[in-house]
Structure formats: structure tokens, C-alpha cells
Automatic annotation (TrEMBL):
Biased composition (Polar residues): 724-740
Ranges annotated as biased composition (Acidic residues): 709-723
Gene Ontology BP terms: autophagy; protein deubiquitination; proteolysis
Family, similarity comment: Belongs to the peptidase C19 family.
InterPro entries recorded: Papain-like_cys_pep_sf (IPR038765), Peptidase_C19_UCH (IPR001394), Ub_carboxyl-term_hydrolase (IPR050185), UBA (IPR015940), Ubiquitinyl_hydrolase (IPR016652), UBP13_Znf-UBP_var (IPR041432), USP (IPR028889), USP_CS (IPR018200)
SUPFAM superfamilies: Cysteine proteinases, RING/U-box
Pfam family, any one: zf-UBP_var
Catalytic activity: Thiol-dependent hydrolysis of ester, thioester, amide, peptide and isopeptide bonds formed by the C-terminal Gly of ubiquitin (a 76-residue protein attached to proteins as an intracellular targeting signal)
Catalytic site positions: C328 (nucleophile), H774 (proton acceptor)
Protein name as catalogued: Ubiquitin carboxyl-terminal hydrolase
Species annotation: Poecilia mexicana
Annotated positions binding Zn(2+): C192, C195, C212, H225
Basic and acidic residues bias: start-end ranges: 741-753
Residues covered by the UBA domain: 666-706
Amino acid sequence: MAADLGELLVPFMPTIRVPKTGDRVYKSECAFSFDSPESEGGLYVCMNTFLGFGREHVERHYRKTGQSVYMHLKRHVKEKTTGAAGGAIPRRRNGKVFLDLELNRDFNGEDYEYEDEAKLVIFPDHFEIPLPNIEELPALVTIACDAVLNAPSAYKKQEPESWDEEIQVSRHARSLRQLDNGVRIPPSGWKCQKCEMRENLWLNLTDGSVLCGKWFFDGSGGNGHALEHYRETSYPLAVKLDTITPDGADVYSFEEEEAVLDPHMSEHLSHFGIDMLQMQRRTENGHHTDNNPRPRVSEWEVIQESGMKLKAVFGSGYTGIKNLGNSCYLSTVLQVLFSIPDFQRMYVGNLQRIFDYSPLDPTQDFATQMAKLGHGLLSGQYSKPPMKSELIEQVMKEEHKVLNGHQQRGISPRMLKALVSRGHPEFSSNRQQDAHEFFLHLINLVERNSAGSENPSDSFRFLVEERVQCCQSRRVRYAQRVDYCIQLPAPIEAATNREELLAYEAKRKEAEENTRAPPEPVRARIPFTACLQAFTEPENVPDFWSSALQAKSAGVKTSRFASFPEYLVVQIKKFTFGVDWVPKKLDLAIDVPDFLDLSRLRATGLQAGEEELPDLMPPIVLPEDTRDNSMSSTDYFAEPLTLPSMMDPLPSTSDSPMGATPLDNLPPEESIAILTSMGFPRNHSIRALKATNNNLERALDWIFTHPEEEESDGLSDMADTEPNDNSFSNMNSHSDSTLSPDRETSSPRVKDGPGRYELFAIISHMGASTMSGHYVCHIKKEGRWVIYNDHKVCLSERPPKDLGYIYFYRRLSSS
């Protein structure tokens, strides 16, 4: 038999590899679906590329690559039978098979047992060789199989780079000495005992001193009085005051010089009168929210609809997304995007074509991973209601919560997150992020990966007309820019409960000065109309350079819609920066309407009687000229300009209307692709980038200010270009169609139409800062609101429309 197996594998030996350092072994999830070893068909791992494939996708990989040898992994999970022994640890057969593979479920592992099974499968005949089979397999195959079985998963490889390092228990925690000095710490109103600082405060766990920090591992700083106190006293441990929750706190050891764990934290805090169970609970994965529980508790309860008996829903479009550790910002954005037909059509409608033409490594292909996630959310395959027999069984056991958590497991976005966050310092981390910033980041990736094909982000794109007026000459300049979201200010002064807010602020200051508990918080209630009014009001332009006066002048800018998008994204500017540079959220409630008419904000362009500012730029002063000038004319620049090198040719006014130095070589292809994906001609995009030293933002401005410039290069690919039906000159005309990507125009593709909208989705944030807290989203589907809270999907009883952070509107039909 050994000779037979050896002969059988001889033709495939050159294709079987042993994983080396740096190779990623995808043995926990399929590259095209969310199948895993726990799925009915198990998972097939290619013994050459180490990519994983579900039963429906392994044949495609075999046909495309010719790789014939796969390792089939299957995990059998079943509920543990209760017996006299009770509580026995899960039984595991073939203990080394899935050494690092955690259970892909949301239940207590001690209540279940599982058996792992592995075998080699040879395609196309599906010949199976059970593992382990050391005596009968060739040595190379045995080594390769053992290496695959014991290799860490592909995502374990990334953890040292993108996830926080594991924190160790302090050696001082068990034997920490605490002084019996009668110190009691109030629930708020803390300040440093040496410098009056009220931010980044640390409680020394030995003597109860409250002092400011100096280190920056938590993103904030101070005057170093906590460290200074340690050097004077050698009291080793301190806890950051605004991180204390029932789950723990941020603890630092001065002697060990690192963040540590304190298993006896509750006991150590109670010595100073702090009851951990009364503090604000942590967010979903241990990151803190706020030391003042009351306003945040209310917000958390309202947004998550806590206390209501929400009915779970299943099926197509009702699949949750598992939280990977502060990844809810990603989940909420993706849930909303894949509720939009354009994204469904692009990635799910073209699923087979995308999969068939995917590169050899589909884990690194944006379209493939978006299609995979879209199919996971919309197919209903991963959101099936429980069987009637399961319901009866669970009711008998009175384990309704277990049933709900068991059935609604959701899908894991791990592969897509790794791809879209690669190289990004924030999104590649395990920290909470701003959902608005991630939305723009993802739209940028969609743009870059949609060149030459349908671009679903066209639905969000619109043009903003900016009118700038010189206050002295009264002349004006009109310009247009592309945007995907409007940011509405939240004017506190327009709050309808302003008197109540002023009274609360006075009481809060008084309580803080007297170190008393703060009064019951008051949430500002602001009319949505006031937010729109603040958005449309003129704003001052800092360092405005007037081309009419050839000097600095006062200038004002107003913004209007040059086009209306098919889907309008509205962000409420709820966040500001504290003294520690950490974004903090304003406690606001805004009466956002279900229906919105912005028609009155349609741009009008140059009006009769208005005189335009001359099309001149501030003079560029070369470095050698500044020696004889007591006043450098760079003072007139509204923004720093890149000065040409002494080895570069002087600017050509014919080729560079913006006064920037043209480059002989082509701009970066990535920058060209971004502009062309927005509908601009390639040749025009190159000229714009050259004219602005490859600055994308200025290149867009250049294109907008030169929309009618004729291309004199006589490119053959422009001979058949159709007339531009969507230029700025007739931007106000109604056009519901997307311009073809193949069609070169001098303006970006927009889906202009009426400015009347209906609210269909809300992303809400709970917590004090974008760097902490939790996101959920509510989406209106089939006439009913649905709440998506990580893997849990339920019918919403009371969507928190007044507490949202990002609102999504769809255009109403003109009929």
C-alpha cells in the first residue's frame, strides 16, 4: 500500500510545497466564500499555494491552476452530553490537526466537543488519503502535511503588526501595598494635585495620589507628575481614571515600564472607595468609553434599543457581520453599501465573472473580496432561521439567549479587512476608528478598482459649486469640486433647550469646583433646519489672495450643489478635539427628517451683474530672488506652493496655466487612474497632474477651471469621443444615467437629478470619542427598519433617528 501511495503521488511531487517562513496558510476560511472546516463540505487547502477553498470553489482553482493535491479539513462539532462528570474539557481527536484554529462559533466551548479530520484529496478523481499516514506517504509529503496542519492561520501572521501586543500581569499586583490614609476618590471632578490638569489623570494604587501622566502609549500626554511621584516614592502601579469599567482598566507599571494587568483591580480600587461595578461598561471589545456613566448609558440603551424584545430576522439581506475587535465601524459601512442596488449589481450580480477572472491569489483582489462579502450578506446562506425541532429543544432548556446567539453567528470580514486596511496606519490596527473616514477610504478604493468598469460609487458622487467673493472689489470666482458626503455643523447656539443647557453648565462647573458629583446631564436638541442653515451661510476664507487687487484681502465663500447625487450621505459634525488631541463627541439630538428637499440649494452659477475675478495666480518667487526682497511674496499664498528645482526648466505659461512646473515624465499611474475612474479623459488628467506637480486635489481644481480647453495632441483615441452631455455648462439639467467609463468627458460622472430624498439608513455611534465606543446601523428594508448590531440582526422597534452620526438618503423618483 505504501508503494501504491508513493507511485500515486509521484506525478504531483513537484507541486507539493512545504510552507516556509512568510507563507500564509489559509486553513480557516475559503478565499471565495465563508466556508470553513466547520462547514458541511469542509475546507480544501491547496498544497502548493496554501489557499483555502470551499467545496463549491475548489474545482475552479483546480481548473485554473492545474494544482491537483489539496488537504481537506473538516471539524465536527456537537453538543456535549451532560453526565455525572459534567464540565469536562472538550474532547479533541487528532490534537495537532487544528492546533491554532479557534472555534468559529459564538458559544461556550466547554459546552461542546469537536473532532478534527484531515485527508489529502487528489483531483480530478477525488482520491482520498486519510491523515496522519506517516508510514505510507513519501517523506516530503509527510513533512508538508505536518507543516500545514501545525502552521498558524494566515491572520495569526498579521497580529504582531496590526494587533496590540499581549499585556502581561504585573509582578506587583498580588503583593501591592496600599496605605491606610483615608483617601477616597470622587466619581468625577478630578484634577492633578500638582498642576490642576484635568486630562490624562492617573491614580496611584498605593497612596491614592491623582497626578497627570507623561507617557503617550494611550494617545495623551501631561506634565509627568505621576512619573515624578513614582521616583520620589517607588509606588509602582497607577490606573488611568477615565478607563475604569466593570471589565478592568488601563494600568501602568512605572517599575516595569509598560502597561500591565492587575487581576486584583477591584480590590485595589475599593480601597479608595471606587466600586468598579458602578462604572460605565466598556465597549464591545474592551476599549473604554467615559468615566461619566449617565449620558452614555442613555445613549447606549436608546441606540441599541436595549430592553425591547426585538425579533431576530433571517434570510437574504439579513446577515450580520462578526466583530473582529473594534471592527464595527467597518461592519456598519459595509451593511449600508450592500443595501444599495449599485453595489449589489456590481459585486454580487457579477459574482461568477469576478470569481472566474480573479487573479491567482484572490485574497489580494479587491473585487473578489467585495463580491465574497456581498454574496455572504445577500445570499441568505449564512443567515438561516432555526429549525422547529431546535426551537422546541431550546425552549425546553430555557436557553433563548443561547439559541439567538447560536443561530445568528454572522460572517467574518477578516479577509476583506486585511486587504482594505493594508498599509493604513489606523485601519490596520485593532483600535476603534471613525466610520465616516472609513466610508471615504472605501469609496476611494472602489474608485481605484473600478477603472474601465461600472463604478458603484458614482451613486454618491456630486459636484459642489463654491462661490468666493473678494470683499473689497466685490468680484467673484466660481469653482466646482467633487464630493461624496456633506458635513453639517451642529450649532449649539441654535438648541431649542438653550436655557436648560446654560443652567446645566453652571451646575456642572459648580460641582467640579467643589468636587461633588455632576448634575444629571442635558442633551442639546438642535433643529435639522439650523444645521442646514449653518452649512449654507457664508464663511470667511483665511489668507485669501485677491487676483483683482493682486494682494491679500478679505474673502467669503458659499457652497451650493452643482449636482445632486442619487444617494446623499449626510454626516453630523458631532466631534471636536479635547486638550489631549483625542476626538470627543458632543452630546446632541437632531430632529433629522424622513424626507428631505434640498432643491433650493441648487447652484445657479455666475449671475447677471456679477464680475469675475481675473484668472491669475499669486506670483511664484524663485529662491534666488528672495535675497533682495525684504517681504517675500510667498506671504500672499493661500497655501504653500511647491517651488521648482534649479535644475528644472522654467514654467511654461502655455503648458502650465497654474504656474506649476510641468514634468517631462508621466505622473504616477495610480493618480491617473483615480482621475480617469471619475470620468476625466486620460490625456486631460495627465496634463492636470503635470500642471500641479502631481497634487490630486489641485489637479481636480485645474480640470474644473479648464473644462473647455481643447486637447491639441491629436490623440487617436479621442477621435470618436461623443459630445459631452454632462459638462458644467448644463450641469443643472436632469440626467439619471451614469456616463460610460469608456467615454471621455471633461467632467466627472455624476447622476444628477432632483434634490428630494428619503432616509433609508443610519449609522449611530455610542461613546465619548471616535477612538472608542461602538457603532450600529439601522436600515429600512421592505418598508420596515432593521437594526444591525454586529452579528445580531433584528426588526427595529424605535430607530434612533435623532442620535445618528451618518445619515443615508435615497433620491425620490420624479413622479
